[in-house]
Amino acid sequence: MPKATDNRVDELAPALSTLFETARAQGTAIAAWRLPHADNWQVAISLQPDYKVGQPVLEHSSFGFLFCPFTANEQHSNLFIKADLQASSEKSAITIAADAPTEAAERFQEELALQQFPGKSKWHLPAGSELATEQPEAAYKNAVKKAVATILAEEMEKVVLSRTLTLPIPANFSPVTAFETMLGLHPRAMVSLVSVPGVGTWIGASPEIMVSVDQNQVFRTVALAGTQPITNATSTANAIWRQKEIEEQALVERYVINCFKKIRLRDYTEIGPKTIIAGNLMHLRTDFKVDMKTEPDFPNLGTDMLHLLHPTSAVCGMPKEPALQFILEHEGYDRSYYSGYLGPVGSPDGTQLYVNLRCMQLLETMAILYAGAGITGESSPEKEWLETQYKLQAMRRVLGGLNFE
Ligand SMILES: C=C(O[C@H]1C=CC=C(C(=O)O)[C@@H]1O)C(=O)O
């Protein structure tokens, strides 16, 4: 068995697939991720008996990976995958956290060395029977019509309506190969693979930062909205945005500024909106930045903004309460961890939380893909449906090279 010295294991770091298989066989939670524009992936494996947490507190957190649902409730909890074991594609060894449970760490290393992975399922599955529901086109378009009527009646300004698509998982599908494929396809995205016993396995390539606080104490968030496909004729330089998208993104921007106002923070930098690329799509994005070193009154800015922002107007709507009610009443399915948030906290890169978008959940034989679109008074059900089709394309491609219809 490899020996742990100074919290390190003296051996070459195993392949991501071996780590993933071992975590599956040992019944432990694993998260693998690659930050936008980064060269290396990282892995956190928790050896804790439970992963559930309450409202996350980011400051002074130990290193781990947060995985939180759209709405935390009895079925879906906020989860923290503590990095008891850490690995990365740039390090030649696994790091064992100083406070990791010793016996569990030894068991994990033994299994890792054996490379035998008994068990039926290929990844962690949700407990009970999570049904792979799907919203029929007519039901989605009907919900959009109702949303437009509610907005025109001035009961809300914007709501994001989402839907699922259920597809069979090809027999030779591997989540780790899918993760590696996404690294190449989505260099600008936060690419993730999260697998938790009893909760399930999620894969995604998110374009939207929720809250980040880096090592230099710089806080960042964005207002992201408005969508159009990239075609041969379009690029970020000559993208033309309709009034509908400009207003939709401005609402998200206003939402972020309102959150700053609630905590009376005035000194933030705002850049944009700019056109950005996310896979096969373009969006409008405004970047917000706060140098926390010059804001001593806001030591918990990351946590405070996280709680105020989530769920943002890019996934829920404005005002937040009526939009959330509309979603719960009319969307017709459980979003689970789609449009929640995920990412490393207390890591060498600081805290980097992203909105869980452009993602899918792996069941035993089926995958559930998720996508939503921002509805305003000018929305057309046909166009919003098409927009969700575009957004689903990223995960369809990862799942098996299916072509867009
Ligand atoms: C809700 C999603 O995207 C959000 C982020 C960017 C653009 C959006 C839009 O144009 O509607 C959405 O607000 C999704 O991808 O499922």
Automatic annotation (TrEMBL):
Pfam annotation, one family: Chorismate_bind
Stored Gene3D superfamilies: Anthranilate synthase
Annotated ranges, domain Chorismate-utilising enzyme C-terminal: 138-391
PANTHER family from the UniProt entry: ISOCHORISMATE SYNTHASE ENTC
Entry protein name: Isochorismate synthase
